Amino acid sequence: MAALAKELELALPELPWHTQRDRFAEMATTLGLIVGTLGKIARDVSLLMQTEVGEAAEPAAPGRGGSSTMPHKRNPVASAVVLSAALRVPPLVATMLAAMVQEHERGLGGWHAEWQTLPEICTVAAGALANTVAMIEGLQIDSSRMAANLDLTRGLIMAEAVSIELAKYIGRRAAHALVERACERCVSGNKPLRELLAADAEVTAHLSVAAIDLLLDPRRYLGHAQAFVERALAASRA
User: Fold this and answer.
1) Domains of the chain, with CATH numbers?
2) Which of 138, 175, 177, 238 could be disulfide-bonded to 166 (CB atoms 3.0-4.6 Å)?
3) Per-residue pLDDT tens digits for 29-49
4) CA-based angle 158:162:166, to the nearest 5?
């Protein structure tokens, strides 16, 4: 066993596997978590591909993702594979967990259930990972569509930024009430929030139009997103 572990570059277990099933269950659950994460990615990509959203698309290729009847269609085929895996793996993981409770050594039925289950988890997880990698490497982003979708709210999504900045001058409660009234007029009158704020003397007494424009720019309101991305990338390369 020691020679095999060395050849495969695996840790040598302290005890034989005959009575200790946790290592098999741990492998299954780890793969289950990975597939679940991949499923989350696939779900978001498939939603971003919806016609009404259109912010991202899986990589296109001849014969890939099309429709036999509708030539304009572009289906999220990779996402479909990954989401299918994300639905299939959890019950298989549950089988591996249930198989841990075996009588004595190599109890009847339990470890036999593992024979088919664990290889299937590995196969499905490998397919999900391969499809996710291909999808992410060729993912197409439509930044102009993203901007257009953000503009659908006519600036409302950035109201908090204006409120926070105004609070420095007139206090949180007063700033919140002032911006809230502007938001209500934005909705009821179908007017851009910028226009309403720039025309409000109570607002412009403290914020210039240029300052309002900066506050309403979503690109300047990303929080710690970039730091989180850099941290994750650094961890992946460590």
Assistant:
1) 15-141 (1.20.200.10), 153-220 (1.10.40.30)
2) 175
3) 999 999 999 999 999 999 999
4) 170
SS3 per-residue string spanning 219-237: HHCCCCHHHHHHHHHHHHH
Tens of pLDDT, residues 177-201: 999 999 999 999 999 999 999 999 9
Single pTM value for the model: 0.84
Cβ atoms of 183 and 159 closer than 8 Å? yes
Q: Which residues are catalytic?
A: 67, 106
State the amino acid at position 2 in one-letter form: A
| Span 118-170, pLDDT tens digits | 999 999 999 999 999 999 999 999 999 999 999 999 999 999 999 999 999 99
